[in-house]
Amino acid sequence: MIDQDGVGKHVLDCAMRVHSGLGPGLLEGAYEACMVYELSKRGLAVRRQVVMPIRYQDVVVEGGYRLDLLVEQRVVVELKTVDRLNDVHFAQLLSYLRLGDFGLGYLLNFNVRHMKSGIKRIVN
Questions:
Q1: Could you tell me whether strands 75-80 and 104-109 are parallel, antiparallel, or unpaired per DSSP bridges?
Q2: Could you report the per-residue pLDDT of 14-52, keeping only the tens digit for each?
Q3: Distance (Å, rounded) from C-alpha 15 to C-alpha 34?
């Protein structure tokens, strides 16, 4: 079984590969489908648009949020196609990590000239 950091390395490598092949300017769904394809080719378990409930005290809100990608049941990947990542994007991913008790997440903004500048790693 591959560890969390190993999964993260695969996520980053796949993001670079997808961005090199497609470039910026497409909708999130295109990058999401290609990321799933690349990650799956490597034998990684990847789920897309994972619905997760929000638990607050005795209340459970079904469908409270939706993860773009969940890789190997432990790394959350949020895809963006924005001019610039902002604080709300970081807060969104951090909330997903905390609510799902995940240790590692990536914000990947594909609307950049060089993918390296569109990658943000967040640890819970």
A1: parallel
A2: 999 999 999 999 999 999 999 999 999 999 999 999 998
A3: 9
